[in-house]
Design a protein that fits this description.
With about 190 residues, this protein is of the alpha/beta class. The protein has one domain: Rossmann fold, CATH 3.40.50.300. The protein is built from 5 helices and 7 strands. A 7-stranded mixed beta sheet has the order 1-3-4-2-5-6-7, sandwiched between helices. Helix 4 links the parallel strand 6 and strand 7. The longest helix is centred in the middle third of the chain and has 17 residues. It starts with 5 loop residues before the first strand and ends with a helix. About 35% of the residues are buried.
């Protein structure tokens, strides 16, 4: 698959304000600062389609991007960001749960895991929750370019073992994994 057209559609603050685009949706989920926006930009070969930030917790809305007029990529707020108040965390948890369980357009969820760290408890919790709700999941190890070849192989193997799944190594900088991910999306 080749992405020739990509555009930001809108941001939503709840399931009620999500657009009705009548296209399949691929949702990106992961810890804050795992690289969801960079992931979208790399797949679309556009630098600033999705806004990136070095500050964790910046994405607080559900962002929709139409791709090739064929499907929609959805950038969800990151989980595990401790600097938000408990009330704000609970509010976003509810919004995420509603989006993931009520949005009929979702064909898969891409769970992004930072390859530089061990799988975190909230990554495990999210995986269990996604599995419980029967959502199709693609697992991607991000920021692989920051590790040596040996470290990256070890990290991917560890994530695969911990989550009991196939893992795609990905780098927004080098483009590693982009074709594998686009082929999986095309198969969906």
């Amino acid at each position: 698959m080749k992405i020739t057209k990509s555009e930001f559609i809108t941001s939503a603050d709840s399931i009620k304000t999500c657009p009705e685009l009548n296209l399949p949706e691929i949702a990106m989920i992961g810890r804050s600062n795992v690289g969801k926006s960079s992931f979208i930009n790399a797949l679309c070969k556009r630098k600033n389609l999705a806004r990136t930030s070095n500050t964790p917790g910046k994405t607080r809305l559900i962002n929709f991007y139409k791709i090739n007029d064929d499907f929609v990529m959805v950038d969800l707020p990151g989980y595990g960001y401790a600097k938000l108040s408990k009330t704000e965390q609970q509010k976003w948890k509810k919004h995420l749960e509603k989006y993931l369980t009520q949005r009929k357009e979702i064909v898969t969820v891409i769970q992004l895991i930072d390859a530089r760290h061990d799988v975190q408890n909230n990554d495990f919790q999210m995986r269990e929750w996604l599995n419980f709700h029967g959502l199709n999941i693609i697992t991607v190890a991000t920021k692989i370019d920051t590790l040596s070849r040996n470290e990256s192989q070890k990290s991917v193997k560890n994530i695969s073992s911990e989550l009991n799944c196939e893992v795609i190594a990905f780098s927004a900088k080098s483009g590693e994994g982009v074709n594998n991910i686009l082929n999986l999306i095309q198969d969906l």
